[in-house]
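During the reporting period the student researcher (J.K.) took over the structure-prediction task from the postdoctoral fellow and processed the backlog of single-chain submissions. One of the processed entries is reproduced below for the supervisory committee.
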Amino acid sequence: MFDKLREECGVFGIYTNEISDVTASAYTALYALQHRGQESCGIAVNDRGIINYKRGMGLVNEVFTSEELTRLNHGKIAIGHVRYASAKANNHHNTQPLVVRHIKGNMAIAYNGNLVNAQELKETYENKGAIFQSSNGAEVIAYAITEQRITCGSIEESLEKAMFKLKGAYSVAVMSPTKLIVARDPNGIRPLCIGVLHNDDGEPTGYAAVSESCALSGINAKFLRDVLPGEIVVISKDGIKSINTHCNKKGSLCIFEYIYFARSDSVIEGVSVHEARVRAGELLVDEHPVDADVVIGVPDSALDSALGYSKKSGIPFDLGLVKNRYIGRTFIQPTQEIRDTSVKIKLSAVPSVVSGKRVVVVDDSLVRGTTMRILIKILREAGAKEVHIRLSSPPFLFPCFFGTNITKKASLIANKKTLDQIRAEIGADTLGYLNIKNVEKVAEGANCGFCSGCFSGKYPMDVPEDLPKDKFDSKLSQ
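J.K. obtained the following structure tokens:
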């Protein structure tokens, strides 16, 4: 709706040594991950081998009433999920966690990412008699695991073997009757970290796994480490152990975690998201300086970069745009007129900050250009004399295959128009993108490599020939 790259979801898992209110911990963690998905959410709780769950369409506080939280009650293990989806896949059948009843034991699964060979695997399992109830990859992963359960001695061994068949991006949390198992794909495209739970006396009481470290403090957990690309982490009554069969790459974390997806207070692969965004703003000054009176950021993710631009340039920083925080979850609007009105409801200018001034507007990205055009109009109506747009990411030229909503070149304004044509279309005085040569400098010092295929067209894995890069439209993503 607001012309942004959309991340597909966030996952959470918790294992405690004693029966406790893991539902409350999952609820709190999902609140902290709400920015990663606002269409649906769910929690599955393991109480002495019995898996109870609640999933629904809507925000965390809409789905989980006090009655639902009481019903789920206590257990030792839980997993949770928040989800963003395309309009076509936005229905209750695709909510997670997915709960599977199997002869070898019950299982719940939640994942973040996209399998590029999901359709191929789905057809293979259907030919063997499988019946799919959803159009998301979690069900494909579940079939891949249960297929191995017939011969494997443990669920972690089943996941280990299943991962040889899975191709794409995924951070996954699996809950069995006695264990919590989490894993990242061998390229580590989506983030996942481990935290240690503590009681009020500081004694360790278990472990949590979460897409972003920002969710740990609210559940009284301390960051332990990131899950390695390809690593399987098994948490049980015996403690924590690691399976490194698929760990043979440095990793290719999605660079957009630092630019937009993650929350500013998260630390991913050893790098503060806030500091990475400030650094992006500083790089933009070197690349695209301008004479101006004030620097403002588009809330919320671009405020850090705007601060960096201000610090490096010496141009004062101010809050020139206000975000309405009481708008419900985003959705696809049916007409352009309604979409334009929605942007005006979502964002408004502060006239006293921008009136009569040359304004630098820092944003994280420009996908289709529709929102920016309206935003610039709002600023000019508020009295801005000049509007200079600076973007803390390079131009989007290629689709993403690994769990976002940018699946076609045709939807990308930078793929169709020159820089000056884009500037004229959105109505800016000047326009400057972060140079692709500098994009990895944003996360300088990270313990991994990066995927920046949406900017360069170079991906960390081959895309099947039957999924042309300019026509790709995943039917089995998150």
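The committee noted the following: The chain is about 25% helix and 25% strand.
J.K. will present the remaining backlog at the next meeting.
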